[in-house]
Amino acid sequence: MLRLVASGPGPDAAMRLEGVALRRGGRRVLDGLDLAVPSGGITAIMGPNGAGKSLALRVMAGLVRPDEGAAIPGEGLSGPRDIALVFQKPVLLRRSVRANLRHALALYGVPRRARRDRLGELLDFGRLAAIADSPARALSGGEQQRVAMVRALAARPRLLLLDEPTASLDPQATAAIEALIADTAAAGTAVVLVTHDRGQAGRLADHVCFLHKGALAESAPAGPFLLAPKSPEAQAYFAGRLLL
Amino acid sequence: MQGFGDAFAAAFGLIARLDADLVEIVGLSLQVSLTATLLACAIGFPLGAVLAVGRFPGRGALTVLVNALMGLPPVVVGLVVYLMLSRAGPLGALGLLYTPAAMIAAQTLLVVPIVAALTRQIVADLDAEYHETLRSMGAGAGARMRTLLWDGRLALTTAGLAGMGRALAEVGAVMIVGGNIDHVTRVMTTAIALETSRGELALALGLGMVLMVLSLALNALAMGARMGAARMAHA
Q1: Residue B8 main-chain phi, psi, to 5 deg
Q2: Which residues of B touch A (CB under 8 A)?
Q3: Shortest Cα distance from A86 to chain B (angstroms)?
Q4: Distance from CA of A158 to the nearest CA of B (A)
Q5: Labelling A85: which of B112, B125, B171, B185 has CA 20 to 30 A away?
Q6: Is the CB of A94 less than 8 angstroms away from the CB of B143?
Q7: pLDDT averaged per 10 residues in sequence order, chain A, 244 residues
Q8: A103 neighbourhood in chain B, CB within 8 Å
Q9: B47: which strand partners?
Q10: What torsion do the CA atoms of B177, B182, B183, B188 make, to the nearest 10 degrees?
Q11: Chain B environment of A93 (Cβ under 8 Å)
């Protein structure tokens, strides 16, 4: 079992996974994963398919309970108001964009009198004002993902978890989502971004965690890691070799 | 006994000149069945949502029971309500037997399982799609049910219309608890049964035609709701 401790983030982490293990179908899909997410900036989680990236994200969001180990939120973080998750394929409600955001604000317990102002802020932030009254599910994939991201930000979370938010989007839609991610991080929200895209990690990430077989293979600042990864797993992945 | 052609001509005549008896019977039928359907929806929608989303002991057995009750014979419902409302029954003091209120109660009992069973299926299908998203947003069971019921509203209209169809078409329950009293509890189905037995086919046929038109209209509405729900799933 490969186990390396994250090098970057210290005790001020927004989220820490400690020895997280999870079995699915008799297989250890997370295998003693230790990982810490800094309380600011963008952390990319990379790795081949089946490495446990999305599952790690679900453990951080509290959607999956690990068999062993624990997901420990940073100080003062608890629940979906503080830790928001955006899925690769967003599921929007059968309502307008505005009604989707209104629903999220109500669900997150934003006081009624504050909702109207917050709704306006969210529509502006996501550049969604022009399509606010359109049925959310009739929008393009990129627009739907923008709505899902803005919805996740409704309660001003301190940690935003993104599971391959630009997978299968065209370059324009990808650019719009990346701009939102950068703006979110600039506003002080810690972001965890699961991505297969080395270029995207280079454009956005401050720090990269590379997973292989449910464990952390390497954790390093994005610049040096993307130029010359140290772990043989990351080297093999970037060289285009299959990691078996 | 009239000839077939004469009976049809007389029936059309009754409808064309809006015969007072026919209008009264159709009006009472709609009033009773619509009220019963609305009450059944008020009970059946949340009950179906609880069966779809809730996790509690006996949920499986309750689901089987509700599904089985969809095929409940109206005469059995009529008999049960009759026993409850008769003088010696636990609700006899209310004096509701042979009133439209008793008919509404019987039809509500008949329609609740239909609405609840269809709602359970609709909400369960929607929950499979929304479950993880709503959980990630911290929605508790109550908020999940409200969200799913609202987003399934068009499909749920179909459930309500199916219940309305059942209520309008049934004869056994309203006959037993209503008594088919002229100008008081006579509705379309009981009037058709009576008039046919008396050989007075004109009113029976006229009411039958109205019933058929209502049934077709309900089915058309249900189809429209289904198509709308399908569009909403992608829109």
Answers
A1: -65, -45
A2: 129-130, 132-133, 135-139, 143, 147, 151, 232-235
A3: 8
A4: 14
A5: B125
A6: no
A7: 39 89 93 94 95 96 95 88 94 95 95 95 96 94 96 95 94 96 96 96 97 96 95 92 80
A8: 147
A9: none
A10: 70
A11: 130, 147, 151
Question: Chain B partners of A91 at a C-beta cutoff of 8 Å?
Answer: 129-130, 132-133
Q: With the C-alpha atoms ordered B14, B18, B21, B23, is the resulting torsion angle positive or negative?
A: positive
A84 to chain B: which residues are within 8 Å by CB? 136-137
Instruction: Give the dihedral of Cα atoms B222, B225, B226, B232; nearest 10 deg.
Output: -170
Query: Is B26 within 8 Å of B207 (Cβ atoms)?
Result: yes
> A15 forms bridges with which residues in the sheet?
A37, A73
Q: Which of A41-45, B44-48, B133-137, B208-212 has the lowest mean pLDDT?
A: B208-212
Stretch 100-119 of chain A: residues touching chain B, C-beta under 8 Å: 103-104, 107-108
Question: Which of B133, B143, B235 lies nearest to residue A91, judging by beta carbons?
Answer: B133
- The length of chain A is 244
Q: How far is B140 from chain A (nearest CA, A)?
A: 9
Select the residue of A63, A87, A94 nearest B151 (Cβ to Cβ).
Answer: A94
Q: Mean of the pLDDT values across residues B161-180?
A: 94
Report the C-alpha gap between B146 and B61 in whole angstroms. 24
Say which amino acid occupies B172.
Answer: G
**Cut 0.90: pTM above it:** no
Burial class (CB in 10 A: 0-12, 13-18, 19+), B169: middle
Q: So what's the pLDDT on residue A46?
A: 97
Tell whether the model's pLDDT for residue B83 goes beyond 90: yes
List C-alpha distances in Å: A159 to A231, B12, B169. 27, 71, 57
| CA–CA dist A241, B170 (Å, integer) | 70
Name the minimum distance, in Å, from the CA of A150 to any CA of chain B. Answer: 13
Residue type, B216: L
Residue A68 in tokens: 């062993």
Domains of chain B: 21-234 (1.10.3720.10)
Q: How far is A107 from chain B, CA to nearest CA, in Å?
A: 6
Count of CB atoms situated within 10 Å of the CB of A86: 25
Q: How do A207-212 and A190-194 pair as beta strands?
A: unpaired
pLDDT, residue A151, reads 97
Tell me: pLDDT of B226 over 70.
yes
Mutate which: B133, B135, B149, B154, vs A, most A CBs within 10 A: B133
Rounded Cα gap, residues A150 and A146, in angstroms: 6
